Amino acid sequence: MLIPLRLSAQTDEQLMERAARGSDRAFEELYNRHARRLQGFFARRLGPDADLAADFMHDTFLRLYAARENYHAGRNFRAWLYTIAYNLWKNHIRNRPLPQPLPERERLRIGEQCSGMGSEIQDDADIEIDIDNAILHNALREILRQMPEPYAMLFSLRYEEELTIPQIAQITTLPEGTVKSRLHKTMNTIKQQLKQYEDQ
Amino acid sequence: MKINNDTIARMTRLLRDEENAQLHVAPWQRNRRRFRVPAWLVALPAAAIVGFFFGLWTNSNSPADSPLTALVDTVYVTVEKPATPKDTATSMSDSRPSAQSDLQPISRPTESTHRHKSVRSSQPTSTLTAGRSIADDRIRYDLLVRN
């Protein structure tokens, strides 16, 4: 049997097993694979404070490192990692004040920016498509930013972090049916809000 | 553009990649020291040094450590003390006739007869004692003093 010697050729679960046996290099490889994505996850969920997101990401990996010996073979690594991250995030938002929604004037300004981008240049068809995409992206970014919890978290885990429904149910300790229905509701809301940009 | 679930999912992933690419991610802080001194390489010299100083502290002179000293069994050192007036008096009292000294004990001055505590017994603590002759084997045993 051939044993892959390069760490980059191994799966997350194989690396985690090696890390559980005391290999710091395997754990560093896991960090290099998932740190950026996890920091982005926290940055989107915690707001614009980049340092806060970096702190949460490091805290997640420190907790993972401390509990590495508890890892047992066959457990999905990403589900475990995001379970730690989700619990950290939940503890954080439990203790912070509720975010204030954007004032009406700010929402109108964002809408004008989006619509103004489309009306400036009409000549080239490719540029027009790019502008349409940029408008849609800005609109979607704003919708996701304004989305209330826990819908935003479920949407993020499903479509940004690309976890499966059973994994999300395991992470959030919700029934799979609840996860599915909330995701369906979230998707319908987003579609309704993006309806105005359709066929522009 | 038709907006459906796939479009939204694709746009979400694009937004995610754009935002993640702008992040600054700090490297994992691990111990990057490549070479480590083996523990035994530190422990053995340290134990030797500690043992050496412990031996000095306990003043150890076991036969294995000091073979020359082991050759000397006992060394008698003769020290002559200068005669004091009391010693002279004691020697005078001792110089009585032998017949009388055999019959009755010699009265020696004791501490009870003296009022002062500082006055010691008239018998000198170090007297001339017979030991091995210094010049028998031409070794200066008087210099080989065991501490």
Structural notes for this entry:
The complex is a heterodimer of chains A (200) and B (147). Chain A is mainly alpha-helical and 200 residues long. Chain A has two domains: 9-95, Rna Polymerase Sigma Factor, Chain: A (Orthogonal Bundle); 104-197, Winged helix-like DNA-binding domain superfamily/Winged helix DNA-binding domain (Arc Repressor Mutant, subunit A), CATH 1.10.10.10. Helix content of chain A is 72%, strand content 0%. Chain A is globular. Among the domains of chain B are: 36-62; 72-90 and 120-147, no CATH class. Chain B has helices at 5-21, 39-58, 67-71, 85-94, 98-103. Chain B is rod-shaped and about 135 Å long. Residues 96-119 of chain B have low confidence and may be disordered. The interface between A and B is medium-sized, with 38 and 22 residues.
List keywords for this structure.
heterodimer; A: 200 residues; mainly alpha; Rna Polymerase Sigma Factor, Chain: A; Arc Repressor Mutant, subunit A; B: 147 residues; 39% helix
Topology:
The complex is a heterodimer of chains A (200) and B (147).
Chain A: H1 12-20, H2 24-46, H3 50-66, H4 77-95, H5 104-120, H6 125-146, H7 151-160, H8 165-172, H9 176-194
Chain B: H1 5-21, H2 39-58, H3 67-71, H4 85-94, H5 98-103
Q: CA-to-CA gap between the ends of chain B?
A: 105 Å
Q: Rg of chain B, please?
A: 45 Å
Count of DSSP H/I helices of chain A: 9
Taken together, the total number of domains of chain A comes to: 2
The quaternary structure here is heterodimer
**Poorly predicted runs of 5 or more residues of chain A:** 113-122
Tell me, what is the CATH class of the largest domain in chain A? Mainly Alpha
The CATH superfamily of the largest domain in chain A is known as Winged helix-like DNA-binding domain superfamily/Winged helix DNA-binding domain
Characterize the largest beta sheet of chain B: strand count, sense, and whether it forms a barrel.
none
Which class do the helix and strand fractions of chain A yield? mainly alpha
Count of helices of chain B? 5
| Beta-strand content of chain B | under 5%
- What is the string of helix and strand elements of chain A? HHHHHHHHH
Order of helices and strands of chain B: HHHHH
Question: Might you state the CATH topology name of the largest domain in chain A?
Answer: Arc Repressor Mutant, subunit A
